[in-house]
What we know:
Blueprint: E1 3-8, H1 16-23, E2 29-32, E3 41-45, E4 48-52, E5 65-68, E6 73-74, H2 76-88, E7 97-100, E8 104-105, H3 108-121, H4 133-141, H5 155-170, H6 179-193, E9 197-199, H7 201-210, E10 215-218, H8 243-249, E11 256-264, E12 267-269, H9 282-291, E13 303-305, E14 307-308, H10 309-319, E15 323-327, E16 337-346, E17 349-351, E18 362-370, H11 387-400, E19 404-408, E20 416-418
Parallel strand pairs: 1-10, 1-11, 2-5, 2-10, 5-7, 6-8, 7-9, 11-15, 14-16, 15-19
Antiparallel strand pairs: 3-4, 12-13, 16-17, 16-18, 19-20
Helix pairs in contact: 2-6, 3-4, 3-5
Guanosine-5'-diphosphate is lined by residues 8, 12-18, 39-42, 44, 291, 296, 327-328, 330-331, 408-411.
Amino acid sequence: MKVDVILGLQWGDEGKGKVVDVLTPNYEIVARFQGGPNAGHTLEFEGQKYILKSIPSGIFQEDKMNIIGNGVVSDPALFKQEVEKLEQTGHKLTDRLLISKKAHLILPTHRLLDSASETEMGVEKIGTTGRGIGPTYTDKISRHGLRVGDLYYNFEEKYKKAVDRHKKILDLHNLEYDLESLEKEWFAGVKKMKQFKVIDSEFHINKHISMGGSVLAEGAQGSLLDIDFGSYPFVTSSNTICAGACTGLGIAPKLIGDVYDIFKAYCTRVGSGPFPTELFCQDGQKLRDNGNEYGSVTGRPRRCGWIDLVALRYTIMINGVNKLVMMKSDVLDSFDTIKACVSYNINGIETGDFPYDITEGITPNYVELPGWKTDMTSMRSEKEFPEEFNNYITFLEEELGVPISIVSVGPDRAQTIIR
Ligand code: GDP
Ligand code: IMO
Ligand code: MG
């Protein structure tokens, strides 16, 4: 058995949570491999809507184990809020959620450092989610981080040392803060976190696979936000690509099975940074309205544009995708025509290769296809697809060189068509 991976190919919010939930019945374990509470993964079923931040999206299926992997960064205060919200809706998690000892902790001062850094950058800010993600991964790489396993050994001393170090950095910024109240919330979170089983998740997962078990690895963010291959510096601070599943769970590359890559039938982005196919016209607003494109973590309006096949070909190459999943097709239901960017024009030269820098000077070359002008939200089989929609799928498959295995026509679990 192998580990199948689900990840986003664009700038996040592609609909990963929904697809993990749909595919969970095929696996015994669902494991998040990177990111933290910067993620917002939405699941809708039986008339209920849930937004998960750091808890894997397999959590609603009673007999499945969920693991927060070593590549994840976790904020106990936000973890407590997330768990309690789920508990209030009748979902008991303690037996079904395991946490890696090696996952790094987001301290209250990491959130403050995130905010101080953004304020200092002014108009050049990244537009982060403000959850302390960058400073926590910075500490991980610079070997100053604290991990979940540290909570059990001499923690007070380690915590004080880390916070004293952060305070010295914060003193360089003009930031007012009330650390005491943040710490109160944070330590209450630690208490909650300790109700869960903390494990050596790399052993747990590898043993499970060697005994013939199956694992679904859930990514957060999207490949265009990857620290190495995304639109740097306007990215997140982790490897969101498929390779991140190996480092974020402790599994060998040869154990990777199917790679399900999720993309929207158009494109969105939250936060700052370049976006070649962004629309500032009525079509952009229509995508935002039809797709309810407002961030699930910060509520910010998402920037919207046409699908970018140059970027998708690049992220497909990096991830080694073999199954594509197209989300939010229904958002295009009322468009007369749909555009797809097939190449970039950079200083008069046409290219299909994603360039080093996409900040400026790029004019997208579009192909315009007829829209299907049909409400697809109640469709449950590909036999019902209108001809123009089938043509859109064929066009994308030819351009991207990978089959589209799943099509989503609405936010609900039931609005998913496996081809
Ligand atoms: P994730 O971060 O990749 O899990 O995606 P988000 O949950 O942040 O954003 C996706 C949004 O689109 C959520 O509000 C979903 O409920 C919604 N969604 C998912 N699939 C579809 C779909 O096929 N059609 C529509 N209209 N909405 C969808
Ligand atoms: P999911 O998993 C969309 C964006 C932020 C910002 C940049 C860096 O729901 O797809 P960070 O807080 O990570 O330092 O912010 O990355 N970003 C996301 N955008 N979906 C996400 O997660 C995101 N997580 C971070 O808006 O531009
Ligand atoms: Mg999201």
